Give the backbone structure.
Amino acid sequence: MPGPIDYSKITITPDFDTVEWWMATKEHKYLVRQCKDCGHKWFPPFPACNTCNSMDLGWFETAGTGVLHSYIVVTQPILGAFVEAVPYVVGLIELDDCHEADGSLVRVGGVMLDDEEDVAIGLPVSVEYEQTNEANIVVPRWKISGTAENTWKFNE
Ligand SMILES: [Zn+2]
């Protein structure tokens, strides 16, 4: 498991586009933005639908499970908060229950709780919630939750 993220060294300030998302993570719910006009879903939240330009937006609550679609390994901390955490894996996760109208899955990014040697593309993952030093800020992390056939890893 990677080292801890030192949340005392970063300030997470929910803004107009993310405040509801942060309220949900505090309740251990994982949301993605959803357009009320065309149904398009995306993450991270931003203020207009990039499919139909609508600003009439809502949220889609996912079960917080998916499949690791890809990943990178961060070895250089760009913020002091991550000095003890490197190396850590940032995953691109295809959510199990979050589909676009054409059937394609919605992908979200997240910091994994697993070490690089335990991570492989194709493995199932699930979200876990990490309380920070700020009472109102809970950060979702992702963790390998099982096994799969035909997984794939990047070569060093
Ligand atoms: Zn739309």
